[in-house]
Amino acid sequence: MHRVIEDYIRMCHDGYKLGWHERNGGNLTYRMRPEEVEGCRNLFTQDRHLDLPIDASALAGEHFITSGSGKYMRNMPLEPERNMGIIRIDDDGAGYTILWGLEDDAKPTSELPSHLLNHIARCAVTDGRCRVIYHAHPANITALSYTIEPDARVLSRILWQSETECAVVFPEGVGILDWMIPGGTDIALETSKLIRTYPAVVWAFHGIFGSGETFDETFGLVHTIEKAAEIYLKAKGAGIVRTIGDDQLRLLADAFGVKINEDFLD
Ligand code: 2HA
Ligand code: ZN
Questions:
Q1: Phi and psi (nearest 5°) for 151?
Q2: What pLDDT is attached to residue 1?
Q3: Nearest Cα to 31, choosing from 172, 223, 211, 201?
Q4: CA-to-CA distance for 93 and 184, rounded, in angstroms?
Q5: Distance in Å, CA 109 to ligand 1 centroid
Q6: Which pLDDT score, from 0 to 100, does residue 175 have?
Q7: What distance in angstroms lies between residue 234's CA and the mean position of ligand 1's atoms?
Q8: For the chain, what are the domain ranges?
């Protein structure tokens, strides 16, 4: 099996083991490096074409590994060729061709519009370094979204205060989108606006989208956010008497050489 496909499967299954992928919940896309495309070319035996509901011309010619619509992350290691696939975005960005996997007429994730618009947005703000977009349904960050208004400042402060690492891992903060119908173009557009500013965006009452340069970085980001949400909810249940202050957040940012989002500090 090709290394990049193994790494992709491992991330899917790690999310499942942490309880983030009940049933067919969650999805993962990875923008392949040219050498990874070459390494996988012997797998490309299909040419099934599908249209996109969005303009993906900014990703023309790019190859993505994607999970399948309705497929379970739990099953990813058992039958990769049925549960995931490799697609190539058309030169005009209006559709894509399935080159490998997604066997038996399967389609890419229902959240493909959100994934592709998020790739476009994060590529633009990271000089093309972003390669991974990950959607998961972790319980604690989703539960937390019931306890606050959908306000990125409120959410980011809660998370930064709930674990010392947070301000270093996501100094820009975390965005939050109020409840919307999933799987469509509207939620994709709104998410892609927020993800330009924040490396991760919570979907209220649903889950989270995270982005990053590597599988490790992206998984680690979502894991850190989810852990902070868990700590917050535990502390809130027990009764919070003190927390990390804004001066301490500034000290942390200085010590680790990151630029914390000052708009979110008092
Ligand atoms: O793949 O998570 O948001 C199922 C979902 C839809
Ligand atoms: Zn979802």
A1: -130, 115
A2: 67
A3: 211
A4: 17
A5: 8
A6: 99
A7: 27
A8: 1-110, 135-266
**Burial class of residue 213, CB neighbours in 10 A (0-12, 13-18, 19+):** middle
Q: Match 């496909």 to its residue by tokens.
A: 5
| 1-110 topology per CATH | L-fuculose-1-phosphate Aldolase (3.40.225)
Ligand nearest to C-alpha 187? 1
Spatial separation of the C-alpha atoms in residues 263 and 266, rounded to whole Å:
8
Which of 69, 109, 141, 222 for a ligand 1 pocket mutation test, highest count of atoms within 8 Å of Cβ?
Answer: 109
CATH 3.90.1150.10 fits 135-266, yes or no: no
Low-confidence ranges of the chain (pLDDT < 70): 1
Q: CA-CA distance, 60 to 131, in Å (whole number)?
A: 15
- pLDDT recorded at residue 182: 97
CA end-to-end distance (rounded Å), the chain: 51
